[in-house]
Amino acid sequence: MYNTDKPNRAELPTTKQLVRSTLIAVGAAIALLITVILPAEYAVDPTGVGKVLGLAEMGEIKAQLAREAEEDQANIAVAAISNPRQNESAKEEPRVVSQQVEIASLKAESAVTIAPVWKDRMMIALKPGQGAEVKLLMEKGQIAQFEWVAKGGPVNFDTHGDGNGNSISYEKGRGVPDDKGELEAAFTGNHGWFFRNRNDKTVMVILKTNGDYAEMKRVL
C-alpha cells in the first residue's frame, strides 16, 4: 500500500509567511469592499473608482428601486384602508356618518399621494450600440400599463408585437429619455419593446409594468 509522504518541517510555511498571507487576503478583501461592493450595492463610493467603472450609478439605481418598492408597499396599505369591507351591522348605524367622512378623506388623500403599483421591474444595461428586447405575453384586448426611463442617455425604441403569424408596430422613437402609457394587445402573442443604445457610454434602461399579461420576459 502506498502511504502519502508527510511534509518535512522545511516545507511547512512559517508563522511569518502565514501572517503575511493573511494580511494580504484581508487587504484585498477590504479593497474589493471599498472599490466594488460598496459602490455597486449601496451607492457609496469613497475612492471614486466605482464611478469610473460605472458601479456607483448601478448602486444608485438599486437604492432607488428599493425606495420605490417600499413606497409601493405603503401605497398598498393605504389603498386597503381606503376600501373597507361593507360588513357593518345595524348596531353601528350612529357611526356611519363619521366613517363615511373618514373614508372620503382617505380616498381624497389616496388620489393625490398613491403612486402606481408595479407588477414587474426590469433593469437592462446596454453597452454602446447594444440592443435588447422585452416582451409581455398577452391575449387580444388585454391592456398593460408601463413606464420606462433611460439612465445615462436617451435610447431608440420600437414598441411592437408579434405571434401566430401576426406583427404590428405600435410606436417608434429616436433619442428618447423616457416614456409611459398603456399597451393594448392587438392580437394574442408577444407585445413589448426593443431598445438600442446609440450613445458612447453604457445606459441603464429601467422598465416597470403592470396590468393584464401572463409574464414579462427578455428575449434579446
Automatic annotation (TrEMBL):
Keywords, ordered alphabetically: Membrane, Transmembrane, Transmembrane helix
Transmembrane segments: 21-40
Protein name in UniProt: Transmembrane anchor protein
Source organism per UniProt: Vibrio agarilyticus
